[in-house]
Please model this.
Amino acid sequence: MQKKANIIIKYKRKQLLIMFVVLIALISLVIVFGRYITNSINDFFQRSSEFYFESDKLSEKGTTLQVDNWSGVDDYTITVNMNSRKNNIEVATYDIPYEISYSASDNIICNLNKKEGIIYASDNTDIFTLTITPNTQLRNGDKVEVDIEVKSTGEYKKTLKGKFILVVGQENISYEITDEESSPYLELSITNTLSYYTVRQAFGNYHAGDRIDVDTYLSLSQENKNRCYSGEVKIEFNPKEVLLDMTSEVYNKAKNIGTTAIDGNTYINRFTITIDAISSVDLRFYKVDVNKNYTYPNGNNNSIIKITEN
Model:
């Protein structure tokens, strides 16, 4: 009998041990599942409450944007576009306030145009800028960094962030595209930081390929100025996506103009322009799809317009 009783006791202990292990597993599962349910509920309430808090240069995971060939002398302004849209149809129907903060490397001074913003329901957009100013002498290859973070401060919380890196480079030609969703057009800005001109056609004591400084260039006759250039770029684009505003004074001086046929119509798809030393030019392109945002530089560094230096 005693042996049988011991067997029963061992059996019950085994059952209790199994039940304990199962209970621990269930508790762990409930905790994990509970977190999932909580996150899902939060996402659901945000979606059902039309809470949309987005940016062209910032994201929840964090973006990294790098600008090369910065002069390291002039101010550089970062323009951040905020919006409260999911798409062109689904938008927030109430104002969304937010706060802005940043941290920067010690070789620059930063200035925000505001520390707080509101994305109003009337147009679902807002903009803020951060201007970067070097506070020490920077040389080629030096970098400056800024981390920007924005947090919604209303009933629903969301944080967007991004890192911006500016690299000091040699004199060069760079460009950027300013755009936003729902805008019918984008602006292309090309900047030439070269401080000299190159002789294209020999004249006087100058041979083809010689470099002359800006002051010398300005003293030349118009005929000889036409024999020189500083920056020269080829601009290529797909007219199925963007169409050039041909009323531009910059385009009126273009050369090597190329065209393509689409549905029986002829459209410009490439041309070449020259840019004076230490100056910039702006061109406007109309978007075929206004829902697109072709801002450049961007998170993936893909540009809708191809710029090639000649």
Remarks:
- The longest strand covers residues 265-275.
- The two ends are 102 Å apart (CA to CA).
